[in-house]
Amino acid sequence: MPNVLTASSTVSCGHPPGAVPVQSTAKLRVGTAAVLVKTDIDSKSTDGACGIPVLQGNKKCTTTTVSQGMATKLTVGGNAVMLEGLLGSTDGTIATAQQAFLAGTANQTKLTSL
Description:
By secondary structure, the protein is mainly β. It has one domain. The protein has one helix spanning 38-41; strands at residues 10-12, 29-30, 33-34, 64-76, 79-90, 93-94, 97-98, 102-105. It has a four-stranded antiparallel sheet with strand order 1-8-5-4, with no helix packed on it. Strands 2-3 form a two-stranded antiparallel ribbon. It is elongated.
């Protein structure tokens, strides 16, 4: 079973350093870190961390879109928690090709879900 993503997890646009800052107010916690739900990641800013080189035809990632990785069995506040299988895209482009590299690493192994 995949590990649950928390506020201590790494979410990245896939272009190093590419870190997407995440915060959660969920009441469910793993240690001291609140679990993440889709709205904690979807449509969030990459805060300029995208590593796409600034060249003609390229656009750095600025926002995220989550497409997969929501738990089917574990919810908090009626929202599915996010799992390490998180997949999605960003609005970044390289030579006008849309980038689909959004991913997450749980950085914890205490809580898993389907």
